[in-house]
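Lab notebook, bench 4. The sequencing result for the construct came back, and we need a structural model before the next group meeting so we can plan mutations. Quick request posted to the team channel:

Model the 3D structure of this chain.
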Amino acid sequence: MSSPLFEAAKKNAERAYQLDQSGQSHQAVRYYVNAAEQLQQLINFTDDPNMKNLYFQKAMEYILRVKEIRGIIEPSENKPRSSRAPPEESDEISDAISSVIVREKPNVRWEDVAGMEEAKRALREAIILPMTRPDLFKGSRKPWKGVLMFGPPGCGKTYLCKAVASEVESTFFSVSAANLISKWLGESEKLVNELYERAVEEAPSIIFFDEIDALASARGGASENEAMRRVKTQLLQAVEGFATGDELLVTVGATNTPWDIDAAMRRRFERRVYITLPTSEAREKMFQIHTRGVDLASGVNFSELSSYTAGYTAADIALLCREALMRPIRELDAEGALKDLSVQPRAPDIDDFLQGMEHIKPSVSPKELARYEDWRDQFGG
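Done. Here's the predicted structure in token form:
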């Protein structure tokens, strides 16, 4: 327990207790918060289940005390009763929790999404059409409540979901599932409930969970604690049917590991969309997109580059373009010529892209791709 992180948590907890006992409860809040966050980090760094439980229990004590100070819950009988914090006072817990949710109106155009025609069609039918023509999706033709996008990393799942949201007049809630369960001990269950309540109020809404597998993995594992089980149960209930009226609300999950998702949660995602590697035509468009604003040499042929990059993800191509465009600047830097502001780099040529391919390789192996296809064949997509 003598690690710097533990000592820091201990110091924050002691300072919080001193302030709390001296009647300065609101000043103690940030020290309780810091101690809880540091204990959360310790949980991730230790393999000892007893220590994990100890850190968890202490962190929960600090969180409960902060709730009492803020008036979120009634104080325990053996602790001093504190008045509710004034509205103008910042709430550290609210700030920490809200950091995992982003409410936004994405600025991604549908036509900016290169390729993925089958996925775009599936998402159009599952989300865009029901939200733009709700009169057509009644009774047995009810819209899907949950959509799962799965496939290799770097293929544009998040980008595509933002494009969907930009096509409809809906509120877009973006949630990092990994942050949701690690950012704040004991608050994830509450946050899921508050998220769906707000989504119903601002419907039509799209709730997008990135890395949904972090929040919806198979239940009952040896490392799963009671708090995590409650979060998963709450999410299952929310996706199943949080809205009670005609509100338009759809949950979209993105995952690179669909096989890790709990079977009950998988059933909640009624529509499963496979986001696979880009086609040749899509790769050609990606080269156009990622070289915008830069004058290229006449010999650069995007169709040719597309044929050389079979097996590359969208993210791989973006990296390749960045590498190729950087090479002329790197040459000038090596010569010390960049100090002269009148010197301009040459136009990137085809050799810059070909040499860039020596460094930027496909990030998804055929074996990994086959696993996604096997899962698709078994569960649809």
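The first strand starts at residue 101 and ends at 104.
Will bring this to the meeting.
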